[in-house]
Design goal:
By secondary structure, the chain is an alpha+beta fold. The protein has helices at about 40-45, 75-80, 105-120, 140-155, 235-245, 265-275, 280, 290-310; strands spanning about 10, 20-25, 30-35, 55-60, 65-70, 90-95, 125, 170, 170-175, 180-185, 190-195, 200-210, 210-215, 220, 245-250, 255, 260, 285. The chain folds into two domains: about 10-160, GIY-YIG endonuclease (3-Layer(aba) Sandwich); about 170-310, no CATH class. The protein is built from eight helices and 18 strands. The longest helix has 18 residues, at about 105-120. It is elongated.
């Protein structure tokens, strides 16, 4: 079922996009405040950190994305008295509500849900020990908190928090020649293949709702081989997929254990090849043999011609 559009308001407190920023959804009581560690002193003077809520500490250790999720009836005070001693984090997110409407049971529920979700997705290592149990709430309160979590996970990416973004995609079963096999969209015009014979790699992908999805069962390099580029976004992504179990060791190679949605063909090609790669050239259309770049140009041209042939409104 497709989700409805939502109106999100961002406010850059000091006018800088990399400074403190607040985020709110229309008709939602939740409030999110993202703060760089360098501005923590100014942030603690604001009203939001004095409320009951949840907070996220974000940073890295030895090149691995790292996070801590906590709760308090005074999130700013908790951070100042305890977690400021942690030296690895570089930004904090305060999650509260307008009118300070969350109680202790609510924030314990949110803390438990967020820790469980972060561990399930596996994009960040957590400094939390164990996942705390979900507190007992009334049926109505559980429904409200689940709705709160759903809205929160929509808001967080807007303030540069990507630890809860789910990029694995369920496999689609299709019947071919009387057997059941894993497949993507049925249209072969939107399916692509990447082969690197030197390393015995073959990967399949498809476009679906604007996402470039590499299919489960596709092969990739076991280790990142791009010298000097391990710290780049693609090198870090390769490491993240190994750490989260999306890429599973298979002899001298890795195999995609799940469908995974990449932001671009180049990101997908880099992970498959274990090095920086131009995905618009390396991915080939399964139907025509064109590079992704050639296929895209032809597809866009066909779309423009189709629009030109449509009758103008009112004619």
């Amino acid at each position: 079922m497709s989700r409805k559009g939502q109106s999100l308001e961002l406010f850059y407190i000091d006018g800088h996009p990399d400074g403190m920023v607040t985020a709110e959804l229309y008709n939602w009581t939740g409030h999110v405040l993202m703060v760089p560690r360098t501005q923590l002193g100014d942030a603690l003077k604001r009203a939001e950190p004095k409320c009951t809520g949840v907070y996220l500490l974000l940073g890295d250790q030895d090149g691995t994305p790292f996070a801590y999720i906590g709760e308090s009836d005074d999130v700013g005070g908790r951070l100042k008295s305890h977690d400021v001693k942690k030296d690895w984090w570089n930004s904090v997110v305060f999650i509260t509500t307008a009118g300070n409407k969350l109680n202790k049971a609510h924030v314990r529920y949110l803390e438990s849900r967020l820790i469980a979700e972060a561990r399930r997705i596996g994009r960040f290592e957590l400094d939390n020990g164990t996942t705390p149990p979900v507190p007992s709430l009334s049926e109505a309160d559980v429904a409200k908190m689940e709705a709160f979590v759903e809205n929160l996970l929509t808001v967080l990416p807007a303030v540069r928090v990507d630890m809860f973004i789910e990029r694995t995609r369920p496999a689609v079963k299709g019947v071919v020649a009387g057997t059941i096999q894993i497949a993507g969209p049925s249209s072969p015009a939107r399916r692509f293949v990447l082969e690197t014979r030197k390393h015995g790699l073959r990967a399949n992908a498809f476009l679906d709702n604007g996402e470039f999805v590499v299919e489960a069962g596709s092969m990739a390099r076991l280790n990142w081989e791009g010298r000097g580029s391990e710290a780049t976004s693609y090198g870090q992504l390769h490491a993240e997929l190994k750490r989260s179990g999306v890429l599973q060791p298979d002899g001298q190679q890795s195999v995609f254990a799940e469908n995974y949605a990449f932001r671009s063909p180049s990101a997908a090609a880099a992970v498959v090849n274990g090095r920086p790669a131009n995905g618009t050239i390396e991915w080939k259309n399964q139907q025509t043999g064109e590079t992704y770049k050639e296929w895209e140009a032809r597809d866009l041209g066909a779309s423009e011609r189709s629009q030109a042939l449509e009758p103008e409104e009112g004619i």
